[in-house]
Amino acid sequence: MEKERSVDKLARYMMYTAVATVVLAICWFFRDVIIYMLAAGLVSLIGQPIMTFLNKLKIKGHGLPSWIYAILTLVIIIGLFLAIVATIIPIIAGIAKDISMVNVESAAMSISVPLKELNDFLIAKFPGLGADFRIETAILNEIKKLNVINASLFSSIINSIASFVASFGVGIFSVMFIAFFFLKDNKLFENIIGALVPDKHEQNAREAYNDIEHLLSRYFIGLIIEILGVALIDFLGLLLIARLGFNASIGIAFICGVLNIIPYVGPLMGGVIGSVLAIVMKYCCALPVGLDVNFWVFIIILIAIFWFAQIIDGLIYQPVIYSNSIKANALEIFIVLLMAGYIGGIIGMLVAIPCYTVIRVIAARFFRNVKFIRKLTGENNR
């Protein structure tokens, strides 16, 4: 009898494993469709506040059909995105054009004094570099290597870009088409989930979905506010203090704001890239910009601007986004990001918080009897 139970249990586990393998294989085969659906879900989460606002608008006491509100929401989202692209891309292209016209040799001459000071410092601290070491020569050699592009590589890049644009166009249409139905019927995804789970778990699954939708909607909207907030602080600092001019300031600030969404690494990357671009535009371009101060003072000003933006981000934006939006403490988030970075690098860190939010809510709904889950999610305090 005991042996039969063991055999039945083993057969059941094998069946579960086989089903899970088939499901994973299907998901992998249709991964593009799943990505489109997830992206559409993200768009619908961002658009939910707009839908809520539009639903409150009444014409002679009557509202419009939900499909009209869904179309208006998508038009607003696409319009805002295109407005940002139309404003920022030409500015960044102009910065790239100015940098591409830089004469590297004359640029090195324009900062010869601070470079000499830096060379003397490096030689004194690192004698192994040799008395003839020149950092500008080393950088110049590396830049010249980047200029070696053969025709076949150029053709390959053009083909890759064309293929990407075509795939991107199909993807955007698919995402917007799916997002329209998610916005039109905000219960659609919930009903799909309810149909996939057993009846005894359906109520918990629906409640978990509503919690996830609410938390992720707040998180992604908060993330957009964080990008705009950091970019605004950087822009004002670069424009009013560093005196880089409007176009250069807004272009560099936008780059820093977008990179800021990468946890921990992003702000450092944004600060380094922003500082390098600002220095190049001040000392190397045909029409130099920037505050008329010593080279090292200018660098200190740039560091202070980016550092101040990160202080505001750390004290105001991130606590609201990470702690209040997804209801997790700072240590919890830090450990999750470290693990995600170790597993998936930068991509892993980008998706870590949304994925952890989903796992956390599901655990709170379905495993609330486990003491560790209750402690982690704060169920004991409710």
TrEMBL record:
The record's keywords, sorted A to Z, are: Cell membrane, Membrane, Transmembrane, Transmembrane helix, Transport
First and last residue of the signal peptide: none
Q: Transmembrane region positions?
A: 12-31, 37-55, 67-96, 161-183, 219-242, 248-281, 293-313, 333-359
Q: What Pfam families would the database entry show?
A: AI-2E_transport (PF01594)
- On the tree of life, the source organism's domain of life is Bacteria
Q: Which GO terms describe its cellular component?
A: plasma membrane
Does Ion transport count among this protein's keywords? no
Main localization of the protein described in the UniProt heading: membrane
InterPro entries linked to this entry: AI-2E-like
Subcellular location(s): the record lists: Cell membrane
One GO biological process from the UniProt record?
transmembrane transport
Membrane topology of the entry: Multi-pass membrane protein
Q: Which family does it belong to?
A: Belongs to the autoinducer-2 exporter (AI-2E) (TC 2.A.86) family.
This one is known as AI-2E family transporter
Q: Which organism is it from?
A: Candidatus Cryptobacteroides avicola
